[in-house]
Structure formats: C-alpha cells, structure tokens
Amino acid sequence: MRSTNCRKTFRLIAVLAAFITVAFLIAGCNSGPGKTESSSVNGQKPGPVRIGFLLETLKEERWLRDRDLFVEKAKELGATVEIQVAEGNDAVQLQQAENLLTKGIDVLVVVPHDGQVAASIVDKATQANVPVIAYDRLILNSDVALYVSFDNVRVGEMQARYLLERAPKGNYLLICGSPTDNNAKLLYQGQMNVLKPAVDRGDIKIVAEQWAANWQASEAMKHTENALTQNNDNIVAVVASADSVSRGVIQALDSRGLAGKVLVSGQDADIVASQYVAQGKQTMTVYKPIKPLATAAAEAAVKLARGEKIDTGRTVNNGKIDVPSILLDPIIVDKNNLEDTIIKDGYQKRDEVFKTAAAGS
Ligand code: BGC
Fold first, then answer.
1. How far is the centre of ligand 1, averaged over its atoms, from the C-alpha of 274 (Å)?
2. Of 11, 89, 312, 325, which is the most buried if we count CB atoms within 10 A?
3. ∠ CA 295-299-303 to the nearest 5 degrees?
4. Backbone dihedral angles phi then psi of residue 35, each to the nearest 5 degrees
5. Cβ(183) to ligand 1 under 6 A?
C-alpha cells in the first residue's frame, strides 16, 4: 500500500517536472524580439536559427539563384531565412537591417548596395550581438564576421587577359561596374594588372574608363555609344565587368553593325550573355557557380549563429580588420566550352543557350 502511494507520488512529480520543462522551453521560444539573456539556454537561443538575408536587388538573374540556393541550404540545416531587398537604396537597406534585428534574428547576411555605407549595418548588428556575413561584396571599415565571395581580382584579370591575347593592339574601352560596389573596384584592379603593361608598352590605348551606376545596361550603352562616336568606331575591345553591362555594350555595338567585330568580356554567365557568347556577339563571360557560394554562406551563418568559429585560413583586409574570407574560383566561358561548363553543370539549359544562336550568327 505504502509502496503504491510512493510510486503514485513519484509519477506525479515526474509529470510535473516534465510539464515545467516544456512550459519553460515554450516561454523561451516565445520571448519577445532581440537577443536577450532570458531567451538563451547555455548562451544559445532555443528553436531554429533565424537568418536575416539582405539583398541589394533581385533584378538580375544571378541574385535569384543566390536567394533560392541559400534558402534551400539554410532550410536543410534547419534554419529559417527572412529576406529583404533594398532595390539599390542605402537608407532602405539600413532600415531593413534594423527591422530584422528588432525581430530577433541570430545572424545577418548582407549583399551591400554600398560597401562603405553598409558599415553602419554592421555597427547596428554588432551592438545587438548579431554577427554579419558580407555576401559576395565586402563591407568595408567594419567588424564584419566573414566575407564569402569569388576572387574578384582574378575575375578582372581573366576578362582583360582573354581580350588582350586576342586583340594585343588597339583602342580599348573599359565599362566598369557600380562605383559603390567594392567588387567593381577589385575587378578594375585585376583588369589593370593585365592591361597596364600593354598600355605602357604603347600596344593598347584605353580611350575611356566609365563606371556604370548600379551596374545598369542603359548606362553601359550610353557610355559605349559616346566612346564609339568619339573614336570614329575605332575600338577593338570593350572590357565589360559583368553581363549586366555587357548587354548594354552589345546593344550599342549592334546598332552600328559592330557586334561580333569588337571583343567584349562579361561575368555571370547569365542567359542573355550565354546566348551572346553562342552567337559570337560576346567574346567571353566568367562563370561563377553560385551553389558553392550560397552553400558556404548558409553553413557559415548557422555556425556563427551558434557561436561557433569559422576557420577559413584566409583573410581580406577591409580597412579596419582582417576579415576571415572564403574566396571561390571563377571559370572562363567562351564559345568553345559552353557545353563543358555551364550546360554540363545545369547552370543554363542547352536549348536556351543555343535558341537564338542560328539567327544571331
Ligand atoms: C557581382 C556580380 C554582379 C554585379 C551586378 C557584383 O557585385 O559580383 O556577379 O553581376 O554585382 O549585380
């Protein structure tokens, strides 16, 4: 009798203890916004990792891939992702960061519109104890936790070297990217590493260097038209920093019957550029497989949110600190290897790439 009572009391205590534990966990999950001490268990918040992802734009093909592949990997890792897109506006991007921080995200991933201005996003996040990953574009002069990108100086070198080997003499036009994007500067640096010796030898002349605001094709088209007019169409190569701008360059060349005669570089292997490469209107593009980038960033985001260290073995100085960095390798794409690169990888579909090739060639 006594032992039956004992067992009953013991069971009651066990049920009560389980109830209290569950209630405690639920209270932890629902505790309001912000990273507060009361919401953490052993320094970690219970529940799934919450990632904030700030994109600059979704208007170009590549960023849609970045978004989708990042979310896919984050979900696989059990994390949730909240995305906001600033459409090229710095004030909006800062506001979006503040909004996500107020909602209590654990880690913030940012494609900055302006690499300088975005330092204030990192400052706000740091105050809230939230680590920031600079995605594809470095955030300067800030305590950013990680930089995940491609080797952009190499991309610039690849573009310039490819054109220079095929047009070793003559007039060159440079269509650079957005002046607010640190990548645009790194690309230019890479291009000049290759072109400067040829300029110094007197082999080539850079007739103009133009920066396309917000990487816009319309800007690139305008600059190319002006340069062609000023040089009586005497330009042998246009070093265009990405496919968004090469598109504008090719429109300008096309309207003068020069597409396919003037060499043009690019970057991203987007569908229009891949078609232009197939048609011979764009000489090359640089393929940057997005999956490894998005995957590395999502994995790192989850680790940082859990307070784990990321060992990259490489750093890039951002003007304030040496930022641990993951820099992936870019791949040259031209008419000869479309099949073995972007098509083989499933990055672009063969039918799409060659759809207009016959008409354009
Ligand atoms: C990216 C390029 C992209 C460009 C325009 C750069 O920062 O690295 O891949 O084409 O922005 O969006």
1. 16
2. 325
3. 165
4. -90, 100
5. yes
Look at residue 352 in the predicted model and tell me its pLDDT.
Answer: 97
* Ramachandran quadrant class, 54 (left: phi over 0; alpha: psi -120 to 50; beta: rest): beta
Spacing, Cα 134 to ligand 1 middle (Å): 13
* CA 333 – ligand 1 centroid, Å: 17
State which ligand 1 atom lies nearest to the alpha carbon of 215: 5
Query: Which pLDDT does position 157 carry in this prediction?
Result: 98
Residue 17 has which token pair? 């203890």
Q: Give the pLDDT confidence score for residue 12 in this predicted structure.
A: 47
Q: Which is the CATH superfamily of the domain at 152-289+332-359?
A: Response regulator (3.40.50.2300)
Q: What integer pLDDT is reported at residue 47 of this predicted model?
A: 82
Report residues of the chain scoring pLDDT below 50. 1-4, 6, 10, 12-42, 358-361
Tell me what pLDDT residue 18 has. Answer: 47
62 lines ligand 1 (CB under 6 A): yes
Q: What pLDDT is attached to residue 358?
A: 45
Ligand 1 center from residue 214 Cα (angstroms): 10
Ligand 1 atom showing the smallest separation from residue 244 Cα: 10
- DSSP-derived secondary structure for 173-217: EEEE--TT-HHHHHHHHHHHHHHHHHHHTTSEEEEEEEE-GGG-H
For residue 232, give Cα distances in angstroms to 15, 228, 282: 88, 6, 21
In angstroms, the first-to-last Cα distance of the chain is: 96
Task: Give every CB contact of residue 186 below 8 A, 6+ residues apart in sequence.
Answer: 152, 153, 155, 156
pTM above 0.70, yes or no: yes
User: What residues does each domain of the chain span?
Assistant: 50-150+290-328, 152-289+332-359
Task: Give the separation between CA 284 and CA 303, rounded to whole angstroms.
Answer: 37
Show the CA angle centred on residue 125, arms to residues 184 and 120, nearest 5°: 50
- φ/ψ of 133, rounded to 5, equals -105, 125
CATH no. for 50-150+290-328: 3.40.50.2300
Kindly state if the Cβ of 254 falls inside 6 Å of ligand 1: no
